[in-house]
Design goal:
By secondary structure, the chain is mainly α. The chain contains 23 helices and no strands. About 75% of the residues lie in helices and about 0% in strands.
């Protein structure tokens, strides 16, 4: 209430005497002319004292408000002055830049001898202003003032220092950008960020972006690649090749991402050139180091395998005497020196093959990425030749040679025929080798002249090994027949087919027949396990034909009584049952015919001509039929000879 009263007393126009008079009049007992209350000087004094205190408080409040308003006014005036100053300075920069730029151009036309001082002063001012502009741009970039950066860059565009302004921008962009362990990811993030900003600052953002990327490649990536490769180049070739492949792959992948940005009209050539400048010194020697590593690694894999077998790899003879011996051995059963006992070891290893193929697959992958397109087919072929050398020659062919040497002679007793195990493993390896050829080599050479050369080399290698496989299989079959022959010689008695007591024969077939059939059954199953596809039928056909020939010749060594002839028919029926396991129509047909021939041993003399003209015998040579009839013990009788003549 006192504040309101005081405020009313301060009504304009203000007069101090009037103000005191009004205050006294409003105070009870303070009026000078009397009234309801008598004049009381004490009350008036007390009112004056209180009012003075109120005026002091009011003065303090007003003073504080005035000070606050003054500060605000001063601050706003200062900010306004700064803005005006900035605008003025900005304008003076543009004006000064325009003036000094024009002067600089004019000064170029002035003769040096007469205006050297003027030209020097203009040049000095030009460079000072240029330096100030670049400093201003740098400061604005650090403050993140895109608008200011754009203004200064636009002014600098007509100065020689514009390129330096771009360099400063590129340098500051990279400050603190490489914080991760993955430099390629850092670069991708940096370029993505700068690409969004550069268009707001520069009038030709594609040029600035290209220059940034060039700086990154020539400095950051180049240094990173050099550090990673130089530390392993001479100490660890395997790691060096892995690092080279990884770095080149990641660099090209980064370049593919960066190609999405606007870098000018020929950005792909630009990026390719940057990559080439970094890696050319490494790629020039790549294939030599690849082949060197592959040779060393493949040799180590093979040696480690043979060491694990305690096997000292013997040299395979290639001299004329050795070749002559081998040809004689292949075409005869002559034992030219003792066969090697391998104790069932094939000297082929699935693990070795997988390791060699894996190393070669990695080499093909690196070759595809790191080779110049023009050299790719040639380089891929050189890697393929190493695979042929170490896998096909040093491992498979060596195992075939050892396997051939281990095959016993055909007349050996209780021979262990491990060569079929070699065949089985070799077939598996061939499939893996062929798969890698098709999956990893063919895509690299399919459209080049090297394709014919590769196919020819592959065909040559496989044919050479197939010759040895065929030779080994042929000699193995000879051994099988030799084993059967040994069983027949030792188990078959002459009395089997000419028993002393014709009426007391209790067996269904002879012991020799039983043992031969059991042996044949095992060998047929073994062939099926060792071969695949048409090879099974081919080998079983050959084995079946030789089996038939053996039995046919064996039966012709005996004389047959009537009961003995019946027993021979039973034996042949059992052989025929074994022949069914071959699942080869020709073999079964041969034993069907043999079974029909054996009927000549028991048929009544009067029926001989009828039997010989039967369906199964009518086309056979008459001398063959006669030979079987001669095996009968009763052949000498005039009656039998007369009926057959």
């Amino acid at each position: 209430m006192a504040n309101v009263t005081t405020a009313q007393l301060f009504e304009e126009p203000f007069d101090a005497d009037e103000y005191i008079e009004r205050l006294a009049w409003r105070t009870p007992g303070g009026g000078s002319k009397g009234g309801a209350e008598a004049f009381d000087p004490k009350k008036l004094l007390e009112e004056f004292v209180n009012h003075i205190e109120e005026l002091k408080l009011l003065d303090e409040r007003i003073q504080r408000k005035v000070e606050k308003l003054e500060q605000q006014c001063h601050r706003e005036a200062k900010e306004f002055a700064h803005k005006v100053q900035d605008l003025q300075r900005s304008n003076q920069i543009k004006e000064a830049a325009d003036i000094i730029q024009k002067l600089h151009l004019i000064a170029q036309e002035l003769p040096f001898d007469r205006f050297s001082d003027v030209k020097a002063k203009i040049a000095s001012k030009y460079h000072d202003l240029e330096r100030q502009l670049i400093q201003e741009f740098t400061a604005a970039q650090r403050r993140g003032e895109i608008g200011r950066m754009r203004e200064v860059a636009a002014v600098l565009l007509h100065f020689k220092g514009y390129a330096h302004c771009v360099d400063v921008y590129i340098k500051q962009c990279q400050e603190g950008a490489y914080m991760r362990n993955d430099v390629f990811e850092d670069i991708a993030v940096l370029c993505q960020r700068v690409n969004k900003q550069v268009g707001e600052v520069f009038c030709s953002p594609e040029t600035v972006m290209a220059k940034l990327i060039q700086s990154i490649f020539e400095n950051k990536i180049q240094a990173h690649v050099k550090e990673r490769l130089d530390e392993t180049r001479n100490s660890d070739v395997e790691q060096y090749l892995k690092n080279l492949y990884d770095l080149y792959t990641r660099t090209t992948a980064l370049a593919a991402k960066l190609s999405d940005f606007n870098l000018g009209s020929d950005k792909h050539t630009f990026l390719s050139k940057l990559i080439k400048n970094i890696f050319s010194c490494y790629l020039e020697s790549y294939i030599d180091m690849e082949r060197q590593y592959l040779q060393s690694r493949s040799g180590m894999i093979l040696q480690r395998f043979y060491d694990s077998k305690n096997h000292h790899k013997r040299s395979v003879g290639t001299g004329s005497i050795q070749e002559l011996k081998e040809r004689i051995r292949q075409r005869t059963n002559l034992p030219l020196g003792p066969s090697i006992d391998t104790h069932g070891e094939t000297f082929l290893s699935q693990e070795v093959v997988v390791n060699l193929l894996q190393e070669t697959r990695h080499a093909f992958e690196r070759c595809n990425k790191l080779s110049d397109p023009a050299d790719l087919p040639k380089n891929a072929f050189s890697i393929f030749l190493l695979l042929v050398e170490y896998l096909c020659v040093d491992h498979i062919d060596y195992a075939l040679e050892i396997g051939l040497s281990a095959i016993p002679s055909a007349d050996a007793k209780n021979a262990n025929l491990y060569f079929l195990d070699v065949v089985q493993q070799a077939n598996t390896i061939f499939h893996l080798f062929d798969k890698q050829f098709n999956d990893h080599l063919m895509p690299l050479i399919s459209s080049s002249p090297k394709l014919t050369e590769c196919l020819h080399k592959k065909k040559e290698v496989i044919e050479q090994m197939e010759v040895k496989l065929d030779t080994g299989i042929d000699r193995t079959l000879n051994c099988m027949i030799g084993q059967m022959k040994h069983i027949l010689v030792t188990e078959q008695k002459k009395t089997d087919f000419k028993p002393e007591d014709e009426n007391n024969v209790m067996i269904q077939y002879t012991t020799a027949c039983s043992k031969v059939c059991a042996y044949v059954s095992k060998q047929v199953e073994r062939v099926r396990r060792s071969m695949d596809g048409k090879n099974v039928d081919t080998v079983l056909t050959e084995l079946g034909v030789r089996f038939h020939r053996l039995i046919h010749e064996h039966l012709q060594q005996f004389s047959y009584s009537s009961m003995g002839g019946m027993l021979a028919i039973c034996d042949v029926a059992e052989y025929r049952r074994s022949a069914k396991d071959f699942r080869v129509p020709l073999v079964l047909q041969l034993f069907d015919t043999l079974h029909a021939l054996c009927n000549l041993l028991v048929v009544a003399p009067d029926n001989l001509k009828q039997v010989c003209s039967g369906e199964q015998l009518t086309n056979l040579d008459r001398n063959l039929l006669h030979a079987f009839v001669q095996l009968r013990v009763d052949y000498r009788s005039a009656r039998l000879a007369r009926h057959f003549s």
